[in-house]
Amino acid sequence: MSDGSPMTDKSPAPIKMRVQETIILRIVGKGLVPFILLFALYVQFHGDYGPGGGFQAGVIFAAGLILHALIYGLDELRRAVPQFVVEIGIALGTLIYGAVGLWSMVSGGTFLDYGVLNDHDPSHGQHLGILLVELGVGITVTFVMVGIFYAFAGRSRQ
Amino acid sequence: MGEQVMGSMIEALLFLLMIILALYIAQLRSLFAAAMLFGIFSLISAGMLTLMDAVDVAFTEAAVGAGISTVLFLGALGPTTSEETRPLHHAWSAKLVVIATGLMLAYGTLDMPAYGDPNAPIHMHVAPHYLVESVEEIGIPNVVTSVLASYRGYDTFGETTVVLTAAVGAILLLGGAVARNDGLADHHGLDDHEGLADHDGLADHDGLDEDDGQDEPENKGGGNAA
């Protein structure tokens, strides 16, 4: 197993090949990707007012990225979002979440009690806390989904 | 009233579809078709949740169940075959356990309050407080977000950690050192898996951009040699 051959297999799975070969899927998919990413941001930051939030936004954002990989191949997505970015992102989101909790403790409240984050109006503190926490969830979920996709798609046998 | 009857008829129909789909998927041998039908199953359950006015959950179900899971299932089909091999013997004991568990779960639901009962314990405890006070206390129109991110912030933190753990597990077990080793398929056993995990970090960080596309022959060769 340690024969010095290249370590990773970047060849896309058979199913991806088929998407790449079909011009209609490719063109339609290409046009959809930016809108999917934009929709994910809308879901992320509109979660206070409508259905949605970090989990859904993260999944939708990851779906956009994965669609990109299905169209252009796994290599292209790995170029745009390298593995180390994925690994940092996975941890970063959870760290943001935990940091908000610590911040509220430092500000004199209990863990994840956002009310104390704003001196003037507790509900403003709640707004800020929820925004940041949801952002952390969104970042983690996005990169977790992409990371799991890399792990599976990278193993594909050609 | 008519609207209500209509709603429960649609629910019954969706339920029936889900049961039929589940039974059909269970006996299916084509893994590709099963992955697709799982997606449809999730989409139907998202429809169910929408009918129950749980739009946030329906949203998640549609995005995760019908979207990402299907792609991940298809990705997982890559390293394997798209056809399930016939089992050597019928696993009667497994079927027995599944049926017994199902019956017990069904029996358990007999104790639960009727669907939509406003006097159910779950609607009497903290729910009224959230519904009435959350706009004042949190200042956010979507009560679900208030509960999820603020009142139940601990739980959501835990859920995020669960998601993180899932990715760490997947990356350690499957990611990175791919072409070198088909340990799972070739029954090499424990040593290989440990090897995989050990080399992960290295493979990922160093080799990302350099070794594009050139390793297909080696991959095949490695697989055969192993």
Fraction of residues in β-strands of chain A? under 5%
Give the overall shape of chain A, derived from the CA principal axes: elongated
Largest interface chains and counts: A-B, 74 and 78 residues
Cα(first) to Cα(last) distance of chain B is: 67 Å
Q: Shape of chain B from CA axes?
A: globular
The ordered H/E elements of chain A are HHHHHH
> What distance separates the N and C termini of chain A?
19 Å
Quaternary structure state of the chains depicted: heterodimer
Mean pLDDT of chain A: 83
Which consecutive residue ranges of chain A, at least 5 long each, have pLDDT under 50? 1-12
Largest sheet of chain A, in brief, is: none
Low-confidence stretches of chain B: 177-226
Helix content of chain A: over 70%
User: Topology as H/E string of chain B?
Assistant: HHHHHHHHHHH
Instruction: Please tally the helical runs of chain B, counting DSSP H or I stretches of 4 or more residues.
Output: 11
Range of strand content of chain B: under 5%
Number of strands of chain B: 0
Fraction of helical residues of chain B: over 70%
Q: What does this protein structure show overall?
A:
The complex is a heterodimer of chains A (158) and B (226). With 158 residues, chain A is an all-alpha fold. Chain A is built from six helices and no strands. Chain A has helices at 14-21, 23-45, 54-72, 74-80, 83-106, 122-153. In chain A, helix 2 (23-45) runs antiparallel to helix 3 (54-72) and helix 3 (54-72) runs parallel beside helix 6 (122-153). Chain A is elongated. Chain B is globular. Mean pLDDT of chain B is 76; it is low at 177-226. Chain B is mostly helical and 226 residues long.
